[in-house]
Structures are given as structure tokens and as C-alpha cells.
Amino acid sequence: MVDETTDVSTKSQFSIVLRYVHKGVAKERFLGYCDISENKTAGAIVEKIRQYLTEFVCNEKLVAQAYDGTNTMSGNKTGVQTQLKETHPFALFVHCYAHILSLVLTKSAELISECKIFFSSAGGFASFFSMSPKRMKYLDEFFCKHLPKASATRTWNYSSRLVSTLYEYRPQFIDAFEAMLAHPDELDGDTLAPVHGFLSLLNDFQFNFLLETFNNIFAYTDVLYDVLQHQLSDILYCRQKIAQVQQEIAALRDRYDEIYEHTKELVGEPTKRLNTNYKRLYNEVIDTVANKMESLFEDYGQLKFLSLLAHQKFQAYQWAFPDDLFKSLLNTYGPFFDEIRLKNELIVLYSSEEFSGKTVPEMAEMFDDDVMKISFPQLDKLVSLIYTIPVSTATVERSFSTMNRVKDYSRNTTLEERLSHLALLSIEKDLVTHLLRNDQFYEETINNFCKHQRRLEFLYK
Description:
The protein is mainly alpha-helical and 461 residues long. It has helices at 42-55, 71-74, 80-87, 100-111, 113-130, 133-142, 156-168, 170-182, 189-202, 205-230, 235-251, 256-267, 278-296, 314-319, 323-333, 339-351, 360-366, 370-375, 377-388, 390-393, 396-399, 401-408, 416-427, 429-436, 439-449, and strands at 2-6, 12-22, 25-35, 64-67, 92-95. The longest helix is centred in the middle third of the chain and has 26 residues, at 205-230.
């Protein structure tokens, strides 16, 4: 799992985490930071990742890769995930589901200049009110609704809340800004200066046109966001919801006239000086979001095999073996398994009371026993595989908990090596505690420290 983070000096680094199963438990280990300020291309990042994989002897074991949805990382032509598959063909691309929907939005904003301006302007509303209690007083006076804070690292869920709040409470915002202008003596110049600009935006045709457009898109994608967070163990259900949302977004193309006329009724005709082709803009937004979603979920169909160990379906599988799911596994990870033996072990699994109702983590603990490993070697591999892929067994908060902690260590600037080592000591404190139980650890640490010429004599007593 790799994610980019930027410290207060705008120095870019990526942090890398390995996820694996050890003694029946899924582990996530932070390996360190890597400075990519000078070269942030996909090729350079891939080369760094390969160096880590080689150093930790993981090349033959890499079964998945998880990043956010930026073009550099997730691009299906020249992105990191595509280039890494050239040398690691089994590294199925799995997205960080905390980022997916927000990054579809981000891609829309990055590719379409009008959208960049729109989201920058919308974020200004949240920043404006959050910076002063006096400003919040006016907001509370007209409606008790606080805006979500805008941030480049927040999820789509925050962006959708911002858009839906501006869309739903537009009249109240206008009343609040007009009240500010009516009482200039109560406010300072820094507060009054942006008010005219915000009022102008709330009466601008393009801003309101895009506000309604994205509000309609979010009405569907927010539902999908919640489904992906809480239903990832049921891949087939998720696939159905993804397909449904993609169809609903595609159907929005037919609503252009409705949105255009509603915006015209709200704020009047668009300004002639802008000369914007709104139908082109509208179709470009819909196409960009639809195409990006298709790209993000491209590998998702290959995850159907995760349902092979969905314990709720064991009874149904007992009577009708899930051949399509089994073929999905073989198509993706076939070389890792003995096909005939695995199928026989799965048949036993579905009919055995010993495995009945057992989740993947619970089965992983069972296979920590040597007898179970010898009896079901192929099933042991399958459980470890499914437990390793982050989307299969954990919520967004759990699967990327390590990455969230890593980001917390990047808010100050220090040398890359020192930053990595300090973060490593803190994040992996359980390992450090384990090492400290061995007296030999102290001796080796002191010997290593004393390799450099020092005036003091260091002795451990």
C-alpha cells in the first residue's frame, strides 16, 4: 500500500506499507518514507517500489497493490499499477476505498478548467466561515448548519456535503451575506472584502449550473461510497451497485435541458461575455466522471472469487458449487493453486460444521495450527490470499489505519532518513517492545552506535 504525503514545506514523499498474514493474523508494517520531490513520475515511483519489494524479498508473493485514484498511481495505461504489473502480473490493483469517490471528483476538477474554478470557489465558502466566530454567528442566525471544512486530503463525502449544503441552503447564504453588508460596522475589512465575491458567485449562472450538476451526481455516488465501506465482503453485491450507479450517472446525460432551464429560472440568462458552451461542459463532466469510475473499478470484476469464503453462503454452495467464482480465482491467481485439490477442499469446507459460520479472520486463526495446514494446504493459501487483500476483510478505517498514522508523522520537516526511522519506531512500537525483551538487542544497538568515534565510553549494565 503506497500513498503520497506532503509536509509543511511542500516536500513530497511516499510512504509504503506491506500487508500480509502471519500466524493467522493480518499485519500491516510501515517500511518508511521515500522522497519523490524531484521526480514524481509513475516510472520513478515504480522503481522505488520494486527496490522495497526486492529488499524485503516480496517479489514472488505480491498479490495486490493499493493506491489512491490519481492518474499517476491508478492510470490504466501508464500508471504505477499498470507498470508494476509488467513485472508482477499477480498484483491486482485495489483502490483505497477511503479515496475512490473523492478522486473521481478530483479527476473531473483536474481535467476540466471550469470545474477547477468551481470547486476552488465552493471550498472558499467553508474556509470563509470557519476562520471567524463572528462570521459563524451570521451563519447560525439564518440556519443552524455548519459547513464541512474543505481539504485536499478529505474524501468525496466531504465534498458532497459541501456541494449539497450550498445547493440546498443557497437562499440562506444570500441572506447571511446581505446581512453582513447591511452591518459593516460590526465586521472588519478582511471579512467584508470577500462577501461581494460570494454573493456574485451565488448569482452566477456557471457556478449554479455546476452546483446542481454535481449535486445530482453525488446523490448516486454517496450511496455507493457507503456500500463500499460496509459491504466489501460481498463482492457480487458491490459489483451490482457499481454497475447500477454507472448506469444512473450515464442517464444524467438526458437531464441537461432540465438543469439548464432550472438554473436560468434561478439566476437568469448566462453572461454573454463568458461564451461557454454549457451542453459541451455538462457532457464533458458526465463523461469524465463515468469514464473515471469505469477505470477505477476495472479490476474489481476479478475480485469475484472473494465470495468463495463468504460464510453466509456456505449452505448454498454445498448444494451448488460456485464454479464461476472458482474460475475467477483460477483466472487471476491460478498458478498459486492446485486446482483439483483446492476444489475438493472447498467442497469439504462448505459441508463441514467445523467451518460453518466462520469468517475469513476466524479461519485464518484456525489455519495457524500445523495439523490444519497439512490437512488443507490449498485452503490455507486461499484464506491467506483473501485475508491479505485489504478490501476483502476490513473496513476503510482498519485497512488503511497504518497509512493514516503515517500521514500524522509528516506534518513537520526533517531529513528523510531520520523521519522514516522516527516514524518507524513509533508506528511499529509493538515490534520494538518485543525486541527490548532480549538483552542481546541492547548490546547490538550499542555496538552499532559505537562504530563511530566518540569521546564517551558506552557500556550497557
